[in-house]
Specification:
Layout: H1 2-7, H2 10-28, H3 37-54, H4 58-63, H5 65-93, H6 103-114, H7 118-128, H8 132-144, H9 146-161, H10 167-199, H11 209-226, H12 231-249, H13 252-283, H14 290-315, H15 325-333, H16 339-346, H17 356-385, H18 397-417, H19 422-441, H20 451-470, H21 482-488, H22 504-517, H23 539-562, H24 573-582, E1 598-601, E2 612-616, H25 629-634, E3 637-640, H26 660-664, E4 666-667
Parallel strand pairs: 1-3
Antiparallel strand pairs: 1-2, 2-4
Protein name: Sodium/hydrogen exchanger
Catalytic activity: Li(+)(in) + Na(+)(out) = Li(+)(out) + Na(+)(in); Li(+)(out) + H(+)(in) = Li(+)(in) + H(+)(out); Na(+)(in) + H(+)(out) = Na(+)(out) + H(+)(in)
Keywords: Antiport, Calmodulin-binding, Cell membrane, Coiled coil, Glycoprotein, Ion transport, Lipoprotein, Membrane, Palmitate, Phosphoprotein, Sodium, Sodium transport, Transmembrane, Transmembrane helix, Transport, Ubl conjugation
Length: about 700
């Protein structure tokens, strides 16, 4: 009936069927069967958890692991203690029927009812097709809170038998949480590795390959439960660890068998659990107390809402993708309770917990309310709030390639920044897995290359062999690709291009440049601190040299700017030119060529204008020699500057004509640009090229 199943979840219909079956059996006069805890925990629960763990969406789970752990651990602890404390207060105020229930009994009841149930969450959330983020947050919380529930349940059960609880007992109880959770994960990892290693040698007995997956997973669950560790976490860990290696080793038919057998097994278990819940409701002994039941239901909802709001406010400070108010509402509303709480309560001993029937009645009421009311209304609310739904189509190869490319890119950025984040450790784990683990757990060539590429090479080789055997190399069928033909007639490799040999000095120089300038990316960069900076031993000497050069240049600039030529003011060449330019008729210069300036040039590169050095405006009379008539007619006389000896510095080494009187008369003809260094005196292009 599609119209009914669209409104009412399957889990609700199954409970109704169980109620009808239980009523029918009771009406006939027989005693209906009750869901015993041993049957539930040993046979009905493991298939559901193994199916969830084996096909867990690992990428979303690991990316949101911090959020899931905070909801699972802190949220469950908050629910248990908040609910237990308030119920103890209700029992103290509730009258004569509730006064005898102590604090430990209420805390035990709170720890049983506080945990979100994975079976109920799976049953409801898979039907409404919520987006991956919300699904993994609620479902991941329901899986990982098992460790907290197991610890609190056994802890308060043991404390109820004690006459007095000491501080040491509380500390040991707190430490037992880490033992139970991490111990369960450790057991699961051990069995997962054994399963992967065993599947390496099953190539000749393909029929029993699926059996090893079920066998080792169930062994992990039983081993964990044997030592009171978390069996659910052991199952999840074994499924997650074994899957990539087992799927690389087993055949495609075995993979299909595992997939559909797990789905069928978990579906049957889920159906039986909800039917038995309905039957047990009719068959069980109930003690109804309005105050206790209504208070339990009310405080369950309040604790869940408050816990989600406070924890989300804290989590959003650290998340890049924030949880919106709509997401928070769905997470709070999706906290469904189920058969795990019922079975744990059924395990309680009448001797120590005489109020077990009242606890069972309250737990069944909460289960029915969450599954029926919240389970039936969550789909319309998701549509009303326009919460993002899950994409039904698989991701294309293009999306897969770009996702992997972005992962590599973010890993590289983290390395360059020196920040060891999520992508860095993921990359480290992948490298370790590829280098060591795959070689041990995956058989043959599949450990070195992806399964798809290995299958492609196998098909190509098969086609090539068939082609050779048929002798039809001349007639190439269209199905055979060029790779097959290359396998038959391999081309001769092209001769490697001969690279010019580098001299030892040149090679060492290149190495030095690379060593000094390239960033060592795989090292954490130290943060800047002026107190920890290493002093440069050459820094002081360089500073002294730069100061000396700067002073010399400043002195030269001042002399060029402010000193004038101490000759006859009226007969100075500059003044004469200025007067002639302003009024050529009023002033006629003397026929006197004593003050002709001399330009000194550098012979390094006569073509370049930078070779003009300084102008020596030296009057000929000051040199003690009479001016020759040729010089009078030539005007400006060009004299070649003597080349400096190698290893000297123009700034610090005084020349022959650098007497104070000569320096006083220096004047810059034009800005010569940057002065060449002593080592760069040679022209850039050698002669003859």
């Amino acid at each position: 009936i599609p119209s009914v199943s669209n409104i009412v979840p399957e889990s609700c219909l199954l409970i109704v069927v169980g109620l009808l079956v239980g009523g029918l059996i009771k009406g006939v006069g027989e005693k209906p069967p009750i869901l015993k805890s041993n049957i539930f925990f040993l046979f009905l629960l493991p298939p559901i958890i193994l199916d969830a763990g084996y096909f867990l969406p690992l990428r979303q789970f690991t990316e949101n692991l911090g959020t899931i752990l905070i909801f699972a651990v802190v949220g469950t602890l908050w629910n248990a203690f908040f609910l237990g404390g308030l119920m103890y207060a209700v029992c103290q105020l509730g009258g004569p029927g509730l006064n005898h229930i102590g604090l430990l009994a209420n805390l035990l009841f709170g720890s049983i009812i506080s945990a979100v149930d994975p079976v109920a969450v799976l049953a409801v959330f898979e039907e409404i097709h919520i987006n991956e983020l919300l699904h993994i947050l609620v479902f991941g919380e329901s899986l990982l809170n098992d460790a907290v529930t197991v610890v609190l349940y056994h802890l308060f059960e043991e404390f109820a038998n004690f006459e007095q609880v000491t501080i040491i007992d509380i500390i040991l109880g707190f430490l037992s949480f880490f033992v139970v959770s991490l111990g369960g994960v450790f057991v699961g990892v051990i069995y997962g590795v054994i399963a992967a290693f065993t599947s390496r040698f099953t190539s000749h007995i393909r029929v029993i390959e699926p059996l090893f997956v079920f066998l080792y997973s169930y062994m992990a669950y039983l081993s964990a439960e044997l030592f009171h560790l978390s069996g659910i976490m052991a199952l999840i860990a074994s499924g997650v660890v074994m899957r990539p290696y087992v799927e690389a080793n087993i055949s495609h038919k075995s993979h299909t068998t595992i997939k559909y057998f797990l789905k069928m097994w978990s579906s049957v278990s889920e159906t039986l659990i909800f039917i038995f819940l309905g039957v047990s409701t009719v068959a069980g002994n109930h003690y109804w107390n309005w105050t206790f039941v209504i208070s339990t239901l009310l405080f369950c909802l309040i604790a869940r809402v408050l816990g989600v709001l406070v924890l989300t406010w804290f989590i959003n400070k650290f998340r890049i993708v924030k949880l919106t108010p709509k997401d928070q509402f769905i997470i709070a509303y999706g906290g469904l309770r189920g058969a795990i709480a019922f079975s744990l309560c059924y395990l309680l001993d009448y001797k120590h917990f005489g109020m077990r029937d009242m606890f069972l009645t309250a737990i069944i009421t909460v289960i029915f309310f969450t599954v029926f009311v919240q389970g039936m209304t969550i789909r319309p609310l998701v549509d009303l709030l326009a919460v993002k739904k899950k994409q039904e189509t698989k991701r294309s190869i293009n999306e897969e390639i770009h996702t992997q490319f972005l992962d590599h890119l973010l890993t590289g950025i983290e390395d360059i920044c020196g920040h060891y984040g999520h992508h860095h450790w993921k990359d480290k784990l992948n490298r370790f897995n590829k280098k060591y683990v795959k070689k041990c757990l995956i058989a043959g060539e599949r450990s070195k290359e992806p399964q798809l590429i290995a299958f492609y090479h196998k098909m190509e080789m098969k086609q090539a062999i068939e082609l050779v055997e048929s002798g039809g190399i001349g007639k190439i069928p269209s199905a055979v690709s060029t790779v097959s033909i290359q396998n038959i007639n391999p081309k001769t490799l092209p001769v490697a291009r001969i690279l010019p040999a580098l001299s030892k000095d040149k090679e060492e120089e290149i190495r030095k440049i690379l060593r000094n300038n390239l960033q060592k990316t795989r090292q954490r960069l130290r943060s800047y601190n002026r107190h920890t900076l290493v002093a440069d031993p050459y820094e002081e000497a360089w500073n002294q040299m730069l100061l000396r050069r700067q002073k010399a240049r400043q002195l030269e600039q001042k002399m060029n700017n402010y000193l004038t030529v101490p000759a006859h003011k009226l007969d100075s060449p500059t003044m004469s030119r200025a007067r002639i330019g302003s009024d050529p008729l009023a002033y006629e210069p003397k026929a006197d060529s004593e003050n002709l300036p001399i330009i000194t040039i550098d012979p390094a590169s006569p073509q370049s204008p930078e070779s003009v050095d300084l102008m020596n405006e030296e009057p000929k009379g000051c040199s003690g020699l009479p001016p020759s008539p040729e010089e009078d007619e030539e005007g400006l006389v060009m004299r070649v500057k003597e080349p400096s000896s190698p290893g000297t510095d123009d700034v610090f080494t005084p020349g022959t004509g650098d007497s104070p009187s000569n320096q006083r008369m220096l004047r810059c003809l034009s800005d010569p640009g940057p002065r060449p260094e002593p080592e760069e005196g040679e022209p850039f292009i050698p002669k003859g090229q």
